[in-house]
Write a structure and sequence with these properties.
Elements (H helix, E strand, L loop, with lengths): L4 H15 L1 H27 L11 H14 L3 H5 L1
Length: 81
């Protein structure tokens, strides 16, 4: 009572007639790109975790970044007055 190969072939022919080969090719390439992006994201997610404390960013570097950011900010209210 399962699906036989003739049923699958008939089903695929109907799908091709409804969507067309170009649309199916685009769907397949989009799906393949999504799977590849997911796999790359999984690899990058595991690689970004620091192994130990020596690879972490020091707090002094973060404070230095904040000082340089405050020099480049513009006070909007001072320009209006």
């Amino acid at each position: 009572m399962g699906i036989s190969t003739t049923h699958l072939i008939i089903f695929l022919v109907i799908i091709i007639l409804v969507f067309g080969t170009k649309k199916l090719k685009n769907i397949g390439s989009d799906f393949g790109g999504a799977v590849k992006g997911f796999k790359d994201g999984m690899k990058d997610g595991n690689a970004e975790k620091p192994a130990d404390a020596s690879t972490a960013t020091p707090a002094t570097a973060l404070v230095a970044d904040e000082k340089t950011q405050t020099k480049s900010t513009i006070d909007v209210e001072a320009k209006v007055k």
